[in-house]
Amino acid sequence: MTESKVVKEIKVTGKEKPRIGVYVCHCGINIAGVIDVEKLRDYAATLPDVVLSKDYSFMCSDIGQNMIKEDLEAGEINRVVVAACSPRMHEPTFRTVCKEAGLNQFLFEQANIREHASWVNMKDPEGAYEIAKDHVRMAIAKVRELKPLDVQMVKVEPACLVIGAGIAGMNAALDLGDEGYKVYLVEKDPTIGGHMAQLDKTFPTMDCSSCILTPRMVDVARNENIELMTYSEVVEVNGYVGNFDVRIKKKPHYIDQEACTGCGACAEVCPITCANEFELGMGTRKAAYIPFPQAVPGEYTIDMDKCIKCGICASPDVCEPDAIRYDDEPEYVDVKVGTIIVATGWDLYDPTELEQYGYGRFPNVITGLQMERLLSSFGPVTGKPVRPSDLKEAHDIAYLQCVGSRNYREGGHTYCSRVCCMYATKQARQYKEKHPDANIYIFYMDIRAFGKGYEEFYESAQREYGINYTRGRIAEVTEDEDHNIIIRAEDTIIQQIIELKVDLFVLSCGLEARSDSDEIASLLSIQKSADGFFMEAHPKLRPVDTLTNGIFIAGVAQGPKDIPDAVAQAKGAASGASALMAKGEFPIEPYYAVVNEALCSGCRSCQSLCPFGAIDFNEFKNVAEVNPALCKGCGTCVAACPSDALIQNHFADYQLYSIINVAIENPTSTESKD
How many distinct structural domains can be found in the chain? Predict the structure, then answer.
């Protein structure tokens, strides 16, 4: 049995003389291959208040961490500076070392001499060394002024809100529900399933999409820990990690969902026929409807924008349960959750603005998702695709890839949507299975078959099904008097202009962020990246976290991906939410702003500028108050305060001035010039 080690706390109040230890990392050759590390170590030893200076190949290793820990436990130092890589990578590592050795973890500073010195100056070692000296000197100046700070703990409500009930949202909800957590699954449409419910088969295995999805939908509805809230929207979110107060609007169905048996008698007698959104306008539904046969929940909804209130469906002879409620009103439900998962999915790029392709002008130009519904066994033509102009089977079909993706010059997006190459190949193969004599052409820039089994799937489409792949963009699309589509394009491999007449032209449109993503981002105080999707906290280390603690993202809401990746990310988000809730409490780092009430004039400038809604106003005291759990330490309020009443913990003015002063003074400037 080993003897446990008792760590003696290193008392630091900020009044005693700083004793700074500087530790310079070689980072293999990432730093040492450019910068003279030993020379930098010796330079650091000459700076004020530095009592020891060491270097090691990998400071983040156990040996490197123990070097720091031993010096702290020996009482030689009471401040730590590590000159190494980015603080984003290893600041938590070294702060933990300080904490374990008994030093307040916020008496630590990291100088980034890899990204900011060696990597950007590989061809100028001397210049890299001088820049590294500046970073070390500034880190020492700041750590000298740091004060001990305390982490606050907040309780975490063991419940999760999942926004969006597509394949990602459903899997996240099921994982959390199976772990015993209460889940509120909110979906804005009358049924769950998302876009996957519109698909016929999935690549590369060609499994039936409904066969995979429908049992999952039923599992969601049956899980006792999941409260399914369809035809609902989140309208207000307040609070902070562990304690989110959420208001949900349940839109009126105009049919009592408790009483409805899903018999469909109301739809049978309804005299109003309108376009079915689920079928993308290629099929019809009644004003009383369910979106598709396998819908979960299976209760009906009345579209009051189309309903004429004729009263036929409300007749006792039609609706025996007496479920029709023409006077139904929205209902608002308030819930408290500890975590939130955003799985709001995607919209299909609208190719109408790309007039050169004829979508919206020529009836036989359709999108890939419309083709998906034509191929579906429960679609508008029960899986026997026809062209819209005359409802005849198509013998010659052409696909155009990257519509709305990888093409910013035509008004599209710069990113690759990842799924388009594969869904076009899948649909082409499906059609050839039913029509072996058909000719199918796929025009592409590059085929991107990135997933497991995808390259083999693409190759088999050419080899076994005879699908023609032509590398080149389509320049012109017209139609003849019979609504056949005439395509002019260049085959860049043989470098020839080709002209092709086809019966049906399919645009493989890319995926884009949902049209309401700005509202969601504002509601939850989360960020969006330049491509319009929700931004993750770190693309490699925190791909499902957001910069707002307690809020996670999953599926295509974070960026384009296929079904397996969306499910994997949903499970990651559920795991992150579960881990947070399992602890029962969450640490709030003290990088928040604090108010000096003696200086606050009550102007409320800070309150109106705070992007996280972290500032309240105390009417009795006439001063601003910062909620530490909501504040993210961005400093907007500190910079804007006309009374200098706000102070940013760990980044106070005097701490920042200490950095600026040594940078301006630059005692080695003469040496550098020589």
Answer: 5
The whole-angstrom separation of Cα 12 and Cα 480 is 84
Whether residue 297 has a cis bond before it, omega within 30° of 0:
yes
Q: Are strands 623-626 and 152-155 parallel, antiparallel or unpaired?
A: unpaired
Same domain for 527 and 541? yes
Same domain, 66 and 88: yes
Domain boundary among 531, 550, 583: 583
pLDDT band at 636; cut points 50, 70, 90: very high
What pLDDT is attached to residue 611?
86
Classify residue 8: in a domain, yes or no: no
Considering only CA atoms, which of 585, 504, 660, 656 is closest in space to residue 152?
585
Over the stretch 210-268, which tens digit does the pLDDT of each residue have? 999 999 999 999 999 999 999 999 999 999 999 999 999 999 999 999 999 999 999 99
Please give the Cα distance from 84 to 132 (Å, whole number). 10
Confidence of residue 632 (pLDDT cuts 50, 70, 90): confident
- Shared domain for 444 and 379, answered yes or no, is yes
Cβ neighbors of 479 (< 8 A, separation 6 or more) are: 358, 362, 364, 485, 486
User: What mean pLDDT do residues 481-509 have?
Assistant: 96
Quote the CA–CA distance of 641 and 637 in Å, as a whole number.
6
User: Do residues 647 and 638 make contact, with C-beta atoms less than 8 angstroms apart?
Assistant: yes
Alpha helical stretches, state H, 146-232? 167-178, 209-222
371's tokens: 């083709």
CA distance linking residue 59 with residue 84, whole number of Å: 8
Domain with 637, as residue range(s), is: 593-649
Query: Are 364 and 341 within one domain?
Result: no
